[in-house]
Amino acid sequence: MTSSETHVIVGASLTGAKAAETLREQGFGGRVVLVGAEHARPYERPPLSKDYLRGEVGREKVYVHDEGFYAEHRIDLALGRSAVGIDTARHELALDDGERLSYDRLLLATGAEPRRLEIQGGELDGVLYLRSVRDSDALRERLDSGGSVVVVGAGWIGAEVAASARQRGLDVTVIAPGSVPLERVLGAEVGAIYRDIHTDQGVRMLLGTGVEAFEGDGAVERVRTSDGRELDCDFVVVGVGVEPRSGLAAEAGIAVDNGVLVDELLQTSAPGVFAAGDVANAHHPFYGEHIRVEHWANALNQGPAAAANMLGQRIAYERLPYFFSDQYDVGMEYTGFAREWDRVVLRGDPATREFVAFWMVEDRVVAGMNVNVWDVTDAIKRLIGERVAVDDRRLADPDVALEELAHVKNGSVA
Ligand SMILES: Cc1cc2nc3c(=O)[nH]c(=O)nc-3n(C[C@H](O)[C@H](O)[C@H](O)COP(=O)(O)OP(=O)(O)OC[C@H]3O[C@@H](n4cnc5c(N)ncnc54)[C@H](O)[C@@H]3O)c2cc1C
User: Fold this and answer.
1) What distances in angstroms separate CA 17 from CA 66, 134, 170, 247, 307, one per listed residue?
2) I need a labelling partner for 157 at 20 to 30 A (CA). Which of 88, 143, 297, 341 fits?
3) What's the whole-number mean pLDDT along residues 142-149?
4) Contact (CB, 8 A) for 148 and 169
């Protein structure tokens, strides 16, 4: 289908690249421009804290598409260039080199960036952050040199970097204000399991404290904690969360609140402008509220959903959130979204590192996490998505197949 239309995507990462691919797959014959501030062609970030960081796989393994893909599909890849302004009335996007691109549809896939620690010594050499492949390369060089690292923050990035650094033989200390790692998402009970996984591997966990300052002569040599300790180190990795990159949208007058606000069709408040991926705070039909998630699977699926809607389809994005993490030999998948819950039900013994945890509200599962247990995600999705009433005892019993529970609706077999 030929077309004189131009669809522009800002952000050449997983969301943007999958959206561009979908525009072509669905037969859009007009011009597709994929603008990206980074110089590398679109790549996936999960390996950057795992096997790529440890030097076990090379660059070729992280790219979303082969090098020739973009030319073959007539996708204009404008790398190393940033979008600096949107004129929503004229449907124009301004780039940092002065070019102005007219668009019929625009997708904002600008992702998120690490929150910076604005404290004394924060600018010292050796205080590192991890978001891009360049960051991962810089961190890998440090891992190659060995020594000791202080990881600030015990969220997913901090936990995975700590694991990779330990696997490379470094001395690792994690500092975090919570009582356990991953506390915000997993809560105290399941977070404690992850604390034990790390301490068993020799990571020192300094929990319930913060960082007061980084000290050193030009480069960081020491971390001062808020409870008065001084920790010598060769470098520091800060992983204290990310902020959605929504400045471009906000300056253009597009509605923003914890990311770019979009409806279930991923449309922003400006006509013809869509947003997807880490930057999008999307109205989710299942939850009946806006949610913004920072997950690989969301980038993978929301980019294509936005592209389909840019082509005039009206498909609500209603997949349940899903993410995964690998630390040492402990792999997990988490399905759902839970800000609060009544209790956690465990299926299997966490000490064996093979179990499933369920976060419950009344008699419903709101989130489930399988750890070193595989092929249960569909059943967990079904339990959550169909709001199946479950009995804690049966849920906890590994002899009762999850599929069986997932097919029981309100006490009767569906
Ligand atoms: C180290 C690491 C490990 C991760 N591991 C996991 C994991 O195990 N499991 C999981 O589920 N998720 C994981 N994630 C999260 C996952 O990678 C993100 O959810 C995903 O990358 C989001 O994709 P995105 O395309 O929406 O945004 P991003 O990947 O942030 O990409 C946005 C892109 O837009 C570009 N950009 C921004 N502004 C502009 C502009 N004005 N002009 C041009 N370009 C611009 C940026 O340079 C960037 O390239 C991990 C993330 C990191 C950093």
Assistant:
1) 12, 19, 35, 21, 10
2) 341
3) 98
4) no
List, for residues 18-41, the tens digit of each pLDDT value.
999 999 999 999 999 999 999 999
pLDDT of 88 strictly over 80: yes
* Token couple for 195: 């604390």
Atom of ligand 1 nearest to the CA of 324: 9
Length of the chain measured in residues:
414
Q: Contact, 112 vs 243, CB < 8 A? A: yes
Mean pLDDT of 280-309: 98
Mutate which of 9, 13, 182, 298 for ligand 1? The one with the most ligand atoms within 8 Å of its CB, which is: 13
Helices 156-167 and 183-200 cross at an angle (nearest 10°) of 10
Ligand 1 binding pocket mutation candidate from 251, 262, 296 (most atoms within 8 A of CB): 296
Which residues is 102 bridged to in the sheet?
Answer: 92
Would the pLDDT of 1 be above 80?
Answer: no
Q: Is 97's pLDDT higher than 90?
A: yes
Residue to substitute in 39, 48, 110 for testing ligand 1 pocket (most ligand atoms within 8 angstroms of CB): 110
Q: Taking CB atoms and a 6 Å cutoff, what residues make up the pocket around ligand 1?
A: 10-16, 35-38, 45-46, 48-49, 82-83, 109-112, 130-131, 157, 245, 248, 277-278, 294-297, 299, 323-325
Which pair of structure tokens corresponds to residue 224?
């001062």
189: helix, strand or coil: helix
Contact 355, 347 (CB under 8 A): yes
